[in-house]
Amino acid sequence: MPRSVNHVASRARRKKILKRTRGNFLARRNVWTVAKNTYEKGLTYAYRDRKTKKRNFRALWIQRINAAVRQYGMTYSQFMGAVAKNNIGLSRKVLADLAMNNPAAFKAVIDSVRK
Predict the structure, then answer these.
(1) Under a CB-based contact definition with an 8 Å cutoff, are residues 99 and 106 in contact?
(2) To 10 degrees, the CA torsion angle through 100, 102, 108, 112?
(3) Are 71 and 82 in contact (CB under 8 A)?
(4) 3 — phi, psi (to 5°)?
(5) Burial class of residue 91 (count of CB atoms within 10 Å of its CB; 0-12, 13-18, 19+)
(6) What is the pLDDT of residue 115?
(7) Where do the structural domains in the chain lie, given as residue ranges?
(8) What is the number of helices (H) and of strands (E) in the chain?
């Protein structure tokens, strides 16, 4: 009896991955084994960098807050300590946004912290 192979499903699996590697260079887009490795490696990078993105943004917010606070003669550490002590419930993301886009509101936060 001849061997039964489900060509429809295996072809569909290959086409799905080859479709997702469209836009890559040379064999990375159309040679099955190379494209499959490229695709899997890309998924690994995507998973890793979703975590890294959070770290990078937190570091950026801290740098922005530090730069804004130093104009008023404080350091980032002193400022965040005072924010925690005065129970001001603003996150670093919000504080960095205020420092960049609304300096008057950020100054009001600093004044409330200094009391």
Answers:
(1) yes
(2) -50
(3) no
(4) -70, 140
(5) exposed
(6) 80
(7) 8-114
(8) 6, 0
CA-to-CA separations, 53 to 27, 49, 56, 99, in angstroms, rounded: 30, 6, 5, 21
Q: Identify the residue whose tokens are 């590697």.
A: 21
Instruction: Find all residues with CB under 8 Å of 67, minimum gap 6, and list them.
Output: 99
Structure pTM?
A: 0.80
Note the pLDDT of residue 3.
Answer: 86
Q: Per CATH, which fold does 8-114 belong to?
A: c-terminal domain of poly(a) binding protein (1.10.1900)
pLDDT tens digits in sequence order for the chain, 115 residues long: 788 889 999 999 999 999 999 999 999 999 999 999 999 999 999 999 999 999 999 999 999 999 999 999 999 999 999 999 999 999 999 999 999 999 999 999 999 999 8
